Amino acid sequence: MLSAQVRVLGPVEVVGPHGPAALVGAKQRAVLALLALNAGTVVPQWRLVDALWGDPPPRTAVKSLQSHVARVRQALAVCGLPEVLTTRESGYALMLPPDTVDAWRFEQRVRQARENLADGVITKAADHLRDGLALWHHDVALADAEVTGWAEAELDRLSEVRLTALEDWWDAQLQLGRHDTAVGELDRLLVTHPLRERLVGLYMLALYRCDRHNTALQAYHRLRARLADEMGVDPGPDLTRLHTLILRRDPALRPQSGGPATVATVSAAQPAVPRPAQLPARVGHFTGRVHELATLDRLMNRSTADGAESEVQVAVISGPAGIGKTALAVQWAHRMTDRFRDGQLFVDLRGHEPESALSPADALSHMLRSLGVPADRIPTEPTEQASLYRSLLHSKQILILVDNGGTAEDILPLVPAGSANLLVVTSRHTMAALATHHAVCAIGLEVLDDGDAMSLLTKLVGPAAVQREPAAAAELIRLCDRMPLAIRIAAAKLCTGIGTADAAGRPLGTLAGELAGANRLDALAIDGGSRSVRAVFASAYRALRPASAHLFRLLGLHPGTTVCLQLAAAMADLPLALAREVIGELVNAHLVTEVSPGRLRLHDLIALFAHQCAMAECSAPAREEATARMLDWYLAVAAEANRIIDPGRDRVTPALRFALAQLPFPAEPEPALAFLESERANLLPVARFALQHGHTDVPWQLTYLLTGFYDSCGHWLERVLLCHLGVAAAQAGGDPATEGLMRSALGVAYIAIRRFDEALQSLYEALPLMRSSGDMRGVGHVHNNIAAAYSGLRRFGEAVDAFREALEVHTAHGHRLGIALALNNTGHTYVRMGKPELSSRDLTMALQISREIGNRRLEAAALHSLGEADLRGGAAEGALDHFGAALAVYQEMGDRQYQAETLHGIGLAYLTRGEPATATGHLHRALTLAHEIADPHLEAIVRHALAQAYLSAGELAAARTQLDLALAARVWVPDTYEEANLHRDLGELEQRCGDPESAAYHWELAVRLYQKVNATDEADELAARLT
């Protein structure tokens, strides 16, 4: 490995074999530093863009980033570090060992110091802290770089770690009796950090030990006054206690040979019984859990305050098997040993192994012996044991760690008396019943996040292995579901040769390939070992009641990411109340996570285990019935939602074996749309599952029934994919009429993402299928959709002809909804052609028919089209009336797509009236909705309108930002005419900014784009400005 040193704890520097790298500019230094802080792992391009420019980034951000990366790569090569900055997937990585980066070494020293402090090895802790703090050569990291967003938060975190390390350093110095030196340095630190209570406490203690009793008290009073004035709070209990002890001139505050006397460890007496120290050894390479550790740390502020009644005396760490509950509890307990002067007790209740579980009496007997009670003095009655246990703990400070708790009833006798004791319990169950007796701090563990999972793997297999195969490492973590036990087993197979004969030294990609196969749970085991992912899941599964185990197996048959409570009840054919009770047991056992009220999720590995249990233990007929119930439930829910959202869409009525027991949402449009949104991630997997398992009616029926949802909420690319599944299902079913319906739906989906040529291809394929099956209503709809595609291509003559064909077909067959739709679309096309005067008759008739047939969606569409006609004709007041009426209907229906489009129209109307401030208010509401439904076309047109409003108000910088962002959105949904409009207005902006050359560039580009789509009037008008 090439020798290299990267410094980010201050000005950014890189020193390679040939000397320092010449990093020019704050952005280059920022790129290098951000990659160094994540050495050996890929940093996505978008994260770097966010860190360098924030939100929103400039249009040129990606190109600028690529340029900065190229220059940093060149500077690294010159200093003797070629090829260390690599491009990986959609990001970049600095392929250097973490220990070449000073920030990594600093945090390692701090971790080592804290372990030493926990073990009482003060001198060694002080040495580590000194070495770590010496790595800082400025008060802030990245001192000469410019970052924002998440990177700013990372710098704040490093600064906080540094300050805490300084506090630890001076704490250690005081414990070593160096209070004379500490006073001056702590005084200087308090100038810049006057409100840090721990610093103030250390300063007070140093002053007191230097016989400056009054000055120490004054420091406390200064802080208390400032906290009251600036924050309205009082000092915390630790500092208040120290103040009281100084007032008393308590001798315990003087240095003592028997142990430290600092703010956190003041003790007036030594234990009278043997001091138990029963904590198990820390787990190797403990990683992550920062928030959970912080929660436990905050708990200590209450649990050991002398003379104060403790609010919380019990902490419960719960989570699925293999998630790292015991590792977290033991890690934290070791850090806190100096906070419990009378020791630490530990007992493993083995609550998840019924045949060997410890009874409360056995656990109490163990505790009493550990507290020095002779065996012959221990009562035989559990109630008397508990009473003696509480009496012995009443005046003590002891940490009790109970591992693998089974039920709350097993834990209740072990809750200590005395406000300074703390009981920490780990369990696969939430132990909710404990909260009915005691104040409980509940900590639920989930799988690791991506960063911590990668960090754990790197520690276990070594940085070199991860650096060689970063993509395989990321895939391995995904396949392990970011579960600590699974990652540790995978690493063991890679590094020790355990599992197969040739395992040692195997590439990460080889094991990832094995895990990607059908037997992932089998692969996550070590041959001959008692620990495997399957084994820990199985132990939790075996403890379930039969009804809960049955439902757990059935949930494994669901192909999606979450399951709602009503669907779970339907799959198991249970009443909702009983299903809720059964699900409660699964949630309590952490086999299922309730991600929101009534919505459940199984982690990937647990879902795989549930599926395998279903395949092994449920009969084929039982599995088939559960699957049929699931698919019928989705069809029934989609049919009811369609009836509520779009009652005119009535061509499909699913034939269901199993009726819907209860609608999972109120029978109103907005709740129906919200529920389908919550199910959105499941819709494609369910349709794909149905197709793969021969249920060919399900995908195409879902596609049809969900049309109103997608019309209202966007998600166009998902709609295209669902339509493709619908086409495939219709072809598999051999029904030409259904295939025609699906190809028509696919054409509409393509129109929504402005892929008009592909839309026309699909629609012209649908037309003969509809005709051959005699579906003339469908033929009329296809002609209507063909016209919409031509209109999108600005081939308006062909569009009007196709709309007229649709009108003739619908009129001949008396389909009034189709007639109204064709009339509305014909009128709207005239408006787009710049001939609003020709639209009035068609649009008025469309509005009349829609009201006569009671179709609110079509009524709103006609009102919206009338508003556009008014706007194009210069009648802003009429436009506002029509748009306002349309908006009211769309809001009633919960249709975010058309709410946004209507708000866009209202904004343009106010702009026409010369009210840009009012216009921007409506346009920003439209932009919010466009973001919610992820519609880049709508975002682009709304941003363009905002730019016009800002131009009208003379806010040129804001206008430029909106035009740049609109052009960026057009990358996703190209539209030549709209791009021409943007360049036209960019030219106007440059002209007003006094840059005629740039203005001419944008106008010339706009003219070429207008000509490309035969917009000759617009091209000629703009060309005239260039002459």
Describe this entry's structure for a reader:
There is one protein chain. This protein is mainly alpha-helical. Among the domains are: about 290-445, Rossmann fold (3-Layer(aba) Sandwich); about 450-530; about 545-620, Winged helix-like DNA-binding domain superfamily/Winged helix DNA-binding domain (Arc Repressor Mutant, subunit A, Orthogonal Bundle), CATH 1.10.10.10; about 630-805, Tetratricopeptide repeat domain (Serine Threonine Protein Phosphatase 5, Tetratricopeptide repeat, Alpha Horseshoe). The chain contains 47 helices and 14 strands. The strands form four sheets. A five-stranded parallel sheet has the order 8-9-10-7-11, sandwiched between helices. Strands 1-2-3 form a three-stranded antiparallel sheet, with helices on one face. It has a three-stranded antiparallel sheet with strand order 4-6-5. Strand 5 (about 85-90) and strand 6 (about 90-95) form a beta hairpin. Helix 4 (about 100-120) packs across helix 6. The protein is globular and about 100 Å long. The model is unreliable at about 255-275, about 305-310 and about 495-505 (pLDDT under 50). One of its GO terms (biological process) is regulation of DNA-templated transcription. Keywords: DNA-binding, TPR repeat, Transcription, Transcription regulation. GO terms for molecular function: ADP binding; DNA binding.
Helix content: 55-70%
CATH superfamily of the domain at 628-803: Tetratricopeptide repeat domain
What is the makeup of the main sheet? 5 strands, parallel
**What is the averaged pLDDT score?**
86
Number of helices: 47
CATH class of the domain at 628-803: Mainly Alpha
CATH topology-level fold name of the domain at 628-803: Serine Threonine Protein Phosphatase 5, Tetratricopeptide repeat
CA-based gyration radius: 35 Å
Which percent band covers the strand fraction? 5-15%
Structural class: mainly alpha
> How are strands sequenced across the largest beta sheet?
8-9-10-7-11
Given as residue ranges, the uncertain stretches (5+ residues, pLDDT < 50) are: 257-273, 303-310, 497-504
- The CATH architecture designation of the domain at 628-803 is Alpha Horseshoe
What coarse outline follows from CA principal-axis ratios?
globular
CA-CA gap between termini: 64 Å
Number of strands: 14
